Amino acid sequence: MRDLNWFDKFLFFLNSLFAAALLFSYLLPYIPPSTFALLSVFSLGVPFLIIANVIFFLFWLFRLRKQMLLSLIALLFGFNHLTSIYEISSSEDLDGHENILKVLSYNVRQFNEYGWAKDVDIPAKISEFVKDRNPDVISMQEYFSGELMIANSFPHRYIKKRGEGAEFGLAILSRYPIINSGSLDFPTQSNNNAIYADILKGKDTIRIINVHLQSFSVKPDMDNLEQKHTKKVFLGMGQTFVRQQRQMEIVIDLVKRTPYKMILMGDFNNTAYSYIYREIKSEDLYDAYKEAGNGFGQTFDFKFFPLRIDFILAAESLEVLNFDNYKVPFSDHYPITATFALD
Questions:
Q1: What Cα–Cα distance (Å) separates residue 22 from each residue in 39, 42, 127?
Q2: Could you read off the pLDDT of 53-69 as tens digits, one per residue?
């Protein structure tokens, strides 16, 4: 520290704060929101802490300063967190696999039914996107009935609207027969839900679970934090995570009772650094992005740092061959796809 000027000392002080915050964030997946709701909110900021520490590390490295060790140690200590924000994987050749299943998950934001975007052709563009990706099974959140123009390409479907008089909800669309389906019906105070459908492909039965965990009453961006009372916003977000925990427990109960190969996907409204994600994944499921994804796994249109809150998780009995996410401006979420070998 003696060989640093006052400005470098100030930067290293900031560096120390960010490194300490990152190290503390590694504990967040082990703290139930019901125990300390406000702490859960900070899981949303973990990507920012990672990026900040990478920048500090590179800053000191280029200057050949030993201070680079602080952020380097903090980053290496939570290396698994790094692969949740940026992944380098290799996709397998699909030609060697005859029995495969390609799935797509997408929060379509009611196909722009309420005019959040000026583009009036959103339904047509989403339909064309789906056609180009050519999935076997689609899980959509905030699905607005009748808007997907190629829905007839998926003759088997289970659509569940949420709440009395609701116009949108969750949908599972399939090219293969659905032999059983159901809704988990989260508690009535929530408009969010989870549904499932058992898909029959040849001799295989695969349970598809489509999840849309509790949404935020306010969009978690800096504009809202500036316009509203910060404490009220954070308390409200904390209660959102408490609801997500209860909903997650209902989903886990279904996972434990599932006798088939299983793919669980959807909009978690939470990150890979959260208690919610860790608990669901701990049920012998793996994250398809972490196994076969590449680059930033951003799935939500958030301008400050890449936020991944949409997931495709699968049972160990399924082999993921590839994973892709697409930054297309048709919703506030980005669609994700994964292809699995069933044999």
A1: 13, 10, 41
A2: 999 999 999 998 999 99
